[in-house]
TrEMBL record:
<dbReference type="GO" id="GO:0004639">
    <property type="term" value="F:phosphoribosylaminoimidazolesuccinocarboxamide synthase activity"/>
</dbReference>
<keyword id="KW-0067">ATP-binding</keyword>
<feature type="domain" description="SAICAR synthetase/ADE2 N-terminal">
    <location>
        <begin position="4"/>
        <end position="211"/>
    </location>
</feature>
<keyword id="KW-0436">Ligase</keyword>
<dbReference type="InterPro" id="IPR050089">
    <property type="entry name" value="SAICAR_synthetase"/>
</dbReference>
<dbReference type="GO" id="GO:0005524">
    <property type="term" value="F:ATP binding"/>
</dbReference>
<dbReference type="Pfam" id="PF01259">
    <property type="entry name" value="SAICAR_synt"/>
</dbReference>
<comment type="pathway">
    <text>Purine metabolism; IMP biosynthesis via de novo pathway; 5-amino-1-(5-phospho-D-ribosyl)imidazole-4-carboxamide from 5-amino-1-(5-phospho-D-ribosyl)imidazole-4-carboxylate: step 1/2.</text>
</comment>
<keyword id="KW-0547">Nucleotide-binding</keyword>
<dbReference type="GO" id="GO:0006189">
    <property type="term" value="P:'de novo' IMP biosynthetic process"/>
</dbReference>
<protein>
    <recommendedName>
        <fullName>Phosphoribosylaminoimidazole-succinocarboxamide synthase</fullName>
        <ecNumber>6.3.2.6</ecNumber>
    </recommendedName>
</protein>
<comment type="similarity">
    <text>Belongs to the SAICAR synthetase family.</text>
</comment>
<keyword id="KW-0658">Purine biosynthesis</keyword>
<dbReference type="InterPro" id="IPR018236">
    <property type="entry name" value="SAICAR_synthetase_CS"/>
</dbReference>
<dbReference type="InterPro" id="IPR028923">
    <property type="entry name" value="SAICAR_synt/ADE2_N"/>
</dbReference>
Length: 235
C-alpha cells in the first residue's frame, strides 16, 4: 500500500482506485493545538463510522464507504475532495453562539441550519457564504443545492437514530467529494464530527475539548458505539 496522505486523525493508503483510511489512536482539538495519544480511539471511530455510513446507505444517502477491513481500517472509493465543511445544526451551540449571542444555548432551531466552512486549518476553517463557494469555483449552484439537501437529509437521519437511543443530536460536520462525477459523503462520521448529548452528557469530542480527559472520552466513545449498535439491531 502507498501512503498518500496523513492528517491529524487518519492516514490514507492507496490500492488503485480504492483507498484505505487508517484511523489513528490520537486525539486533537483546536486545529491540532491540543493533542494526546488515545490507545483504541482509532478502532472506536472507524467502527462507528462504518455503522453510520452503512445506515445512511440503506436509506439512500451515497458515500465513498465500501466496508470495514480491520478494527481501525475503512475501505472507501477514491474521491476528489471538496475543500468545504458542511455543518448541519439542530440546536444553538458552539461557534454559532459566538456570532449569535441573542439565541439561548441549546435552543432548537425551527429548521436545520446549514453552514459552509472553508476547510483550511491555517485559517481555522472560516465560515463562508454560499456565493463564496460558487465564485471560487468549488461548486456550481446546482451542486451547492445538492450538497445542502444531502447534508440535511443525512443529519436528520442521524438525529432520528440517536433520538431512538434517548439522545439529543446537536450538530454534525460533513465533507463531500466527487466519485465518478457524483457528489457523495466522504471522510468519517463519528464522535469527532458530531455532537450528541445522552442523559445530558457529551458522548463526543466536546468532552475532550472541555476537560482534556482522554480516558473519559474513550469511555464515552465506547458508550456511543454501544448505543448505536443497540438501536440498529432493534430496527
Amino acid at each position: 500500500m502507498e501512503l498518500v496522505y496523513e492528517g491529524k486523525a487518519k492516514r490514507v493508503y492507496a490500492e488503485g482506485d480504492i483507498l484505505l483510511l487508517e484511523f489513528k489512536d490520537e486525539l486533537t482539538a483546536f486545529d491540532g493545538a491540543k493533542r494526546d495519544s488515545a490507545p483504541g480511539k482509532g478502532a472506536l471511530a472507524a467502527s462507528l463510522s462504518a455503522l453510520l455510513f452503512a445506515y445512511l446507505r440503506g436509506r439512500g444517502v451515497e458515500s465513498h464507504f465500501i466496508g470495514q477491513r480491520g478494527p481501525n481500517l475503512l475501505e472507501v472509493r477514491r474521491a476528489q475532495a471538496l475543500p468545504l465543511e458542511v455543518i448541519v445544526r439542530f440546536r444553538a451551540y458552539g461557534s454559532y453562539l459566538k456570532r449569535m449571542p441573542l439565541v439561548e444555548p441549546l435552543r432548537p432551531f425551527k429548521k436545520p441550519l446549514v453552514e459552509l466552512h472553508l476547510k483550511d486549518d491555517r485559517l481555522h476553517d472560516p465560515l463562508i457564504l454560499p456565493q463564496d463557494a460558487i465564485e471560487a469555483g468549488l461548486v456550481d449552484e446546482a451542486e451547492l443545492g445538492q450538497i445542502t439537501d444531502v447534508a440535511v437529509r443525512a443529519g436528520e437521519l442521524l438525529r432520528d437514530l440517536y433520538r431512538r437511543a434517548g439522545c439529543d443530536f446537536i450538530d454534525v460536520k460533513f465533507e463531500f467529494g466527487r466519485v465518478g462525477g457524483r457528489l457523495v459523503l466522504i471522510d468519517e462520521i463519528s464522535g469527532d464530527t458530531f455532537r450528541v448529548l445522552c442523559g445530558g452528557e457529551h458522548l463526543d469530542k466536546e468532552y475532550y475539548r472541555k476537560t482534556g480527559d482522554v480516558r473519559g472520552l474513550l469511555e464515552r466513545y465506547g458508550k456511543l458505539l454501544e448505543y448505536t449498535r443497540l438501536v440498529l439491531e432493534a430496527q
